[in-house]
């Protein structure tokens, strides 16, 4: 006979039961206690206790019975996505983007502010502050109503939310983003690399929802990667996973130069994503010099991508970032290059988020923090 859980064991058991119930109720359909009991494997009494506790904490809501029901209808429960609000922020080279969402990731307001790519630390942080303030006001949400915040940034980020190294943004190395954002919103703040969070967004609400092993390629003014292994975001020992672009032989450092050269040859200024888009527009229209520039870009992109594919053997490669809007002229050349180098070419899909996926991944990071409150027994 197994021993009855006592003390801390009992508390831990309740947390695990609560997590199981919430996991089942994250779907679209409300469930009865009987249905929850069958899905979670808990007894009816335990399921009822958990539901009562989660109702009191605001995580669940009881669904009104359908009109015309005969007899006493069974009580049905749903996850209460409106119980709290989340904030996701993407601070990059050319923009600050903030999303205010409910607990299901439904966007209540989206605010974008253009940032000068040459802006220093103070100007960039000020732009982020304005962006967050406008997003909160647009959603009709006070800062104190934000349960948790996720922040995405280029560069290497440590566990405390500080940027350890950033080669692409002026004066950005050493910025303590978590501490700065806590001055704006009082809840927990987590900071992560933008490529990693873009990958997280794809497995949450994007084209990689069904895949457990994914290589996400951020294709834009900067090239990067995020890795999903066995359904989880892979960070590595020191949170440096996916940084294959640091290796010059991988080709990612020089890849955008092919597009820049084409723009310079047409007297266009490659200072923003919209100018780079003209390369893809020209290629689509049959300009052979633009077609060649994109082919050269993809060849360099494929070197690092092939190394990741050969190492991880992923089910899926996802192309995201600003250039993904023009993936129709990139996918086939990339597939041909992967066929050249890889033992098996995985499925290649294009993100539907473009450059907004990073901010959505920041929302998912914030939600991870909120869901951890269930596992620790804390209130949000």
UniProtKB/TrEMBL annotation:
<dbReference type="GO" id="GO:0003677">
    <property type="term" value="F:DNA binding"/>
</dbReference>
<dbReference type="Pfam" id="PF09339">
    <property type="entry name" value="HTH_IclR"/>
</dbReference>
<keyword id="KW-0808">Transferase</keyword>
<dbReference type="Pfam" id="PF00480">
    <property type="entry name" value="ROK"/>
</dbReference>
<dbReference type="InterPro" id="IPR036390">
    <property type="entry name" value="WH_DNA-bd_sf"/>
</dbReference>
<dbReference type="GO" id="GO:0006355">
    <property type="term" value="P:regulation of DNA-templated transcription"/>
</dbReference>
<dbReference type="InterPro" id="IPR005471">
    <property type="entry name" value="Tscrpt_reg_IclR_N"/>
</dbReference>
<keyword id="KW-0418">Kinase</keyword>
<protein>
    <submittedName>
        <fullName>NBD/HSP70 family sugar kinase</fullName>
    </submittedName>
</protein>
<dbReference type="InterPro" id="IPR000600">
    <property type="entry name" value="ROK"/>
</dbReference>
<comment type="similarity">
    <text>Belongs to the ROK (NagC/XylR) family.</text>
</comment>
<dbReference type="GO" id="GO:0016301">
    <property type="term" value="F:kinase activity"/>
</dbReference>
<dbReference type="InterPro" id="IPR043129">
    <property type="entry name" value="ATPase_NBD"/>
</dbReference>
<feature type="domain" description="HTH iclR-type">
    <location>
        <begin position="26"/>
        <end position="61"/>
    </location>
</feature>
<dbReference type="InterPro" id="IPR036388">
    <property type="entry name" value="WH-like_DNA-bd_sf"/>
</dbReference>
